[in-house]
Amino acid sequence: MLAYLSRRLLLVIPTLIGIMLINFVLTQFVPGGPIEQVIARVQGEGDAFRNISGGGDVQGAQSHQYAGAQGLPPELLDQLEVQMGFARISCTAEHQGEPDLSAPDCEKVKLGATERFFIMMGNYLRFDFGQSFFHSTSVVDLVLERMPVSITLGLWSTLLAYLISIPLGIRKAVRAGTPADTWTSGIIIVGYAIPAFLFAVLLMVLFAGGSYWQIFPLRGLTSDNFADLSWWGKVKDYAWHITLPVVATSISSFATLTLLTKNSFLDEINKQYVMTARAKGLTEGRVLYGHVFRNAMLIVIAGFPALFLGVFFGASILIETIFSLEGLGRLGFEAAVQRNYPVIFGTLYVFGLMGLIVGILSDLMYVLIDPRIDFDKRAG
């Protein structure tokens, strides 16, 4: 197992670099750039995309080609390129102090895409993700600020899905083919077919004062007076706010996990060792939970890290928008629209790294649940 883990860990670095490289190359073909966004804001236009007429360098290297650059001094554009990492200041040896474009012996030197990529990856290897272009704060602080919302949705949605789906899936497997199995399967399929954002709107209309009952709050993760509440009051207020977003987020994973559990148990129930256990006179409960459960739950439990990561980092921008939650989903969408590259690539690097590590943890979960699995022999 140690040799297998060593190989997987060594593959993390080239895989992560490949992910970053592919996404970096793709951004070179996307029209617009952060400098155009700044220019649009300075000129009061709000959105640079209305100024785009065709393609162009996404990184904004050719500043005089900007449609919104008329009337702005070239010095400002040069400073923007330097601040956003598209150029650097080169000074002669006689220059003293910090590099400054206003100094007579300093000039701007544009950086090519290859050089920018290697500089970015060098910083990321030191976990230096730089500053956000449009938030006046570091990328790390910005992500940490938005992370509680995503942790809330990811953790509670995953736990809710497991607590409901596993018992329901087992019951459906034991009673496969009965009317109860049929109508519950119909409900599950309908629930899976409903988009999460549409289900969220339905919950708001029914339970958040839309047209029927005012039971849950309409927006936010906590109330305005949250800091003044007692510890028990804070727990109730927190649970009160997260109920609808968590239910809306877990609807699709709930359906998938229930059917996965049912099919896994059906496969095990029909195997020879189950027939042998029954022939020995063991009770149905002993057969089901003493023999079948461990084997059937292998794929379900081992997939917990990946399921949690999918819910955690795949936070729906629509769910967060509907319930007015400032999470990583909205952060990623805003960064893409604004061409906020430090946020886009910084979060991509961290999430990609965590995704690769979670893949390794999933394999460890397999071995932990069933020691008979030996990845070293399979690789050999």
Question: How would you characterize the overall build of this protein?
Answer:
With 380 residues, this protein is an all-alpha fold. It is 65% helix and 3% strand. The protein contains 16 helices and 2 strands. It has helices at 2-27, 34-42, 74-83, 113-125, 139-174, 179-193, 196-207, 231-269, 272-279, 284-296, 298-302, 304-313, 317-322, 328-338, 341-369, 375-379; strands at 87-91, 106-110. It has a two-stranded antiparallel ribbon with strand order 1-2. Helix 6 (179-193) packs across helix 8 and helix 12 (304-313) runs antiparallel to helix 15. The longest helix has 39 residues, at 231-269. It is globular and about 95 Å long. Mean pLDDT is 77; it is low at 48-69.
Task: Give a nutshell description of this structure.
With 380 residues, the chain is mainly alpha-helical. Helix content is 65%, strand content 3%.
Label this structure with key terms.
single chain, 380 residues, mainly alpha, two-stranded antiparallel ribbon, 65% helix, globular
Structural class: mainly alpha
The percentage of residues in β strands lies in under 5%
Given the structure, what is the number of helices? 16
Approximate helicity band: 55-70%
H/E element sequence:
HHHEEHHHHHHHHHHHHH
For the report, how would you describe the main beta sheet? 2 strands, antiparallel
Q: Outline, from the CA principal axes?
A: globular
Task: Specify Rg, calculated over alpha carbons.
Answer: 27 Å
E-strand count: 2
Q: How are the strands of the largest sheet arranged?
A: 1-2
